[in-house]
């Protein structure tokens, strides 16, 4: 059963004559990690905003657990590129923020938040201030915060875009661990090709104007990492390199579509 389903979705910004996205159909089910890859302007953020309910489609339907998506909701946990943390609150308060908004009592929301902070490797950091964290640690707080509300799916918009190569690779590994342990399906957008090929169980390449799906691939690499294969071994394997080169070609073509 697909948790999230998009049927022939189109998007248009108010006042714009052109579509931003056209004819997007996709499904996200349990145990899937869908990555949307595409050049700048191909509509990745627009697509995520539609799924998050921040904007409504101009055509087509989006359903989550069978119900139409008509606005934002706690059933979708969103992690943004620039951490959207509250700088005057601690790590623990930030992670518990969504539950505080819902009126969950302090002891209960802090217990949930501590559990998710441990999952992202931030045990012991609960009482740090946000300004004392590195970029990678802030993104982990963002992931913990999204998980604390126990959403049906996680949506991530270029979550590691601001991190350097080494930290970025660690963040990718962390995300696969979180995906496996939390058993939450993930929808992630990126323009980084190696990241997309490594993480995705299902890779969707967007291209053209309006943005549309130019290719779909089913990939094994994230699952191989999750099953215990070391990250460098996965990323240097001949089949990984072949997949990466194939995707690179497709993205180049999408640039010119
Ligand atoms: N608020 C807006 N109003 C009007 N048009 C917009 C708005 N936001 C995006 N667009 C247009 O919609 C199209 C898709 O943009 P979008 O930001 O979704 O692409 P993207 O793939 O996420 O790009 P990037 O990788 O640069 O973030 C572009 O043509 C863009 O100019």
Please characterize this protein's 3D structure.
The chain is an alpha/beta fold and 257 residues long. Helix content is 40%, strand content 23%. The protein has ten helices and ten strands. The chain has helices at 44-52, 91-95, 97-101, 106-119, 135-148, 165-182, 193-199, 221-226, 231-236, 238-256, and strands spanning 4-12, 19-28, 33-37, 59-64, 67-68, 76-79, 153-157, 186-190, 202-207, 212-218. The strands form two sheets. It has a six-stranded mixed sheet, with helices on both faces. A four-stranded antiparallel sheet has the order 2-1-4-5, with helices on one face. A hairpin with a 2-residue loop joins strand 4 and strand 5 (67-68). Helix 7 (193-199) packs across helix 10 (238-256). The two termini are 33 Å apart. The model has no long low-confidence stretch (mean pLDDT 93).
List descriptors.
257 residues, alpha/beta, Rossmann fold, 2 domains, six-stranded mixed β-sheet, four-stranded antiparallel β-sheet, 10 helices, 40% helix, binds adenosine-5'-triphosphate, cell inner membrane, transport, ATP binding, ABC_transporter-like_ATP-bd
Write the layout of secondary structure elements.
Layout: E1 4-12, E2 19-28, E3 33-37, H1 44-52, E4 59-64, E5 67-68, E6 76-79, H2 91-95, H3 97-101, H4 106-119, H5 135-148, E7 153-157, H6 165-182, E8 186-190, H7 193-199, E9 202-207, E10 212-218, H8 221-226, H9 231-236, H10 238-256
Parallel strand pairs: 3-8, 3-9, 6-7, 7-8
Antiparallel strand pairs: 1-2, 1-4, 4-5, 9-10
The protein binds adenosine-5'-triphosphate.
GO molecular function: ATP binding; ATP hydrolysis activity
Family: Belongs to the ABC transporter superfamily.
Domain ABC transporter: 4-233
């Amino acid at each position: 059963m697909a948790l999230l389903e998009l049927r022939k979705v189109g998007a248009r910004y108010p006042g714009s004559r052109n579509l931003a996205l056209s004819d997007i159909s996709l499904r996200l089910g349990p145990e899937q990690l869908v990555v949307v890859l595409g050049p700048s302007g191909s509509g990745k953020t627009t697509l995520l905003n539609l799924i998050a309910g921040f904007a409504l489609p101009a055509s087509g339907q989006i359903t989550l657990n069978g119900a139409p998506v008509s606005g934002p909701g706690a059933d979708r946990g969103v992690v943004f590129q620039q951490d959207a943390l509250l700088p005057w609150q601690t790590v623990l308060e930030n992670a518990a923020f969504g539950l505080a908004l819902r009126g969950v009592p302090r002891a209960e929301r802090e217990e949930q938040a501590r559990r998710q902070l441990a999952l992202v490797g931030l045990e012991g950091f609960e009482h740090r201030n946000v300004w004392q964290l590195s970029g990678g640690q802030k993104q982990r707080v963002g992931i913990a915060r999204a998980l604390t509300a126990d959403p049906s799916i996680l949506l991530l918009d270029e979550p590691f875009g601001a991190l350097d190569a080494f930290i970025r690779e660690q963040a990718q590994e962390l995300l696969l661990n979180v995906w496996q342990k939390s058993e939450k399906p993930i929808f992630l957008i990126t323009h980084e090709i190696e990241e997309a090929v490594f993480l995705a169980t299902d890779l969707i390449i967007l291209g053209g104007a309006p943005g549309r799906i130019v290719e779909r691939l089913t990939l094994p690499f994230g699952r191989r990492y999750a099953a215990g294969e070391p990250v460098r071994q996965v990323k240097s394997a001949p089949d990984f390199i072949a997949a990466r080169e194939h995707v690179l070609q497709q993205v180049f073509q999408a640039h010119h579509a």
